[in-house]
Amino acid sequence: MNPNHNKYLTLFLSTFQLSAFTFGGGFVIVPLMRKKFVEKLGWIGEQEMLDLTAIAQSSPGAIAVNASILVGYRIAGIPGALLTVLGTVLPPLIIISVISMFYAAFRDNTIVNMAMNGMLAGVAAVICDVVLTLGKGILQLRRLLPILILLTSFAAVRFFQVNIILIILVCGLLGALDAVHRNRSEQGER
Amino acid sequence: MIYLKLLWSFFQIGLFSIGGGYAAMPLIQNQVVDVHAWLSMSQFADIMTIAEMTPGPIAINSATFVGIRVGGIPGAIVATLGCVLPSCVIVMILAYVYYRFKGLSIIQGVLYGLRPAVVAMIASAGLSLLILSFYGSRDLPADLSGINLISVAIFAVGLFILRRWKVGPIYVMMGAGIAGVILYHIV
């Protein structure tokens, strides 16, 4: 068998398998990718995988998708990236398509309805937990700017229905200006 | 053109959801419930619940679900494509910049400013889900006494378990589903 075809096949199958069986989103799937591509296959270095993870987390979109693009691109260029994206996206596409076909019948079932109502309270608890953890991280920065951004954005989106994309653009710009300002004052001190 | 609308909507969701995980949730709610009314608030809550119980990123799960409802299988494919397109382009550009210049201080600055805003928006979208769970409507009703005590109990126990023992969300979700079936049968 052509070793190149083998590489493409391994890329596709690995990402497909990871995506199909990993519950819990990007923060769970990235460590599993590291296990597969760094430890098992030895295709990517330890430090390099850390760098790729940082890029995946700071880019827009789902972290799992971003990480798989980077791994595919690193190992087999643009065709590799396309294959790994396909491998990552196909399982949820298939699973949700199947679920949504049964959704209408599913939702009218009394038992399912009870379970869904219970799980909605569960989702609310999971999101509340996420917000508490992330919010604590922001407070621990002990700087005024992030806390101000947190409070102002919450008021803007909750009470004044300000466009979310506008808030993201403004806060990203504020962060960039802050970084430039801090770089300058650090250089000034030297 | 419904496919173009789906593509553009999920392109924006893919482009502006930065920080992973739940960062996409407020954007999806905005596009799908508020701007286009493709889903009702309780259908949106359903898809968040389903997304939590199935593998795959929330944004891709929602794209597929909304796409199918609005435009069948082609709709699902188009919405998913829109969702990953910005990632494909931007991730590759960032990777290039990263290997070339070995430093991303401005991008890290942008993230530093974005993170608290993202937390605030997740909090707001989470609050909408919480109100829906407790009162069955998106906004707080004038009369607060009609609260669903079963939901409050499941929420409180779930949150306690998550904070206290750091268990995986999937277990809390399964427990909440089973508790829902049992409690609604008893009451």
Structure description:
The complex is a heterodimer of chains A (190) and B (187). Chain A is mostly helical and 190 residues long. Chain A is 86% helix and 0% strand. Chain A contains 7 helices and no strands. Chain A is flat. By secondary structure, chain B is mainly α. The termini of chain B are far apart. The interface between A and B is large, with 92 and 103 residues.
Strand content of chain B: under 5%
Largest sheet of chain B: none
Q: Could you describe the largest sheet of chain A, including whether it forms a barrel?
A: none
Which series of helices and strands of chain B comes N to C?
Answer: HHHHHHH
Helices, strands, pairings?
The complex is a heterodimer of chains A (190) and B (187).
Chain A lengths: L2 H19 L4 H15 L5 H13 L4 H46 L1 H30 L4 H15 L5 H26 L1
Chain B lengths: L1 H15 L7 H12 L5 H13 L4 H44 L3 H31 L13 H17 L3 H18 L1
Quick summary:
Chain A is an all-alpha fold. Chain A is built from seven helices and no strands. Chain B has helices spanning 2-16, 24-35, 41-53, 58-101, 105-135, 149-165, 169-186.
Characteristics:
heterodimer, A: 190 residues, mainly alpha, flat, B: mainly alpha, 80% helix
